[in-house]
Design brief:
By secondary structure, the chain is of the alpha+beta class. Helices cover 18% and strands 30% of the residues. The chain is globular, with a radius of gyration of 17 Å.
Amino acid sequence: MKNFEDKNQEVQEPDLTGTYTARDYISWKTDELMELIRGKVFKMAAAPSSDHQKVVMSLGTILYLHFLKKCEVYSAPFDVYLIRSSEDWKSAKNVVQPDLCVICDPEKIHLRGCIGVPDLVVEILSPSTRLKDLGAKRDLYEEYGVKEFWIVHPQDATLAVHVLENGKYRITSLVTKGQSFQSPTFPDLQVDLDAVFPDE
């Protein structure tokens, strides 16, 4: 794990109408959680529901135990700086906080978060984040090459598996409580949705 610090940070608050990079993002001194998407500031929603948090905990535990000593698993708040290998991370215009992410390259893990593209990203839908997760963030994960992307709907108890093929996402599985699926990217990862969704 590396530490990337900017000793010339300026203390400032973001103007929501402005366009910014990661260099600006790390300079802000605020208690509010936010994301940068194509340079625009998106404030994070209020505290998620108990159902959302139960799914984060149960699915996060499944992933943590499966990837133990092989890959790192992180839950939000955790900054992911989406850049390509040739790009300077401080110039990144996309800094997102997935609900869960799996990172198998230790060189991408730093004290500030993930500098680069995770191998697997999970977004758990809520009314306040649904449009962003299914639209702008899904498009970013596809554009930057996240190999596998899961969309979880706690109210419907469903999980959709998106896999990157020829630069575009294809849904390979749509499963619900009572079913299980095998990850296309990690063939030894099988998830039983009865273990993901809380009982009524």
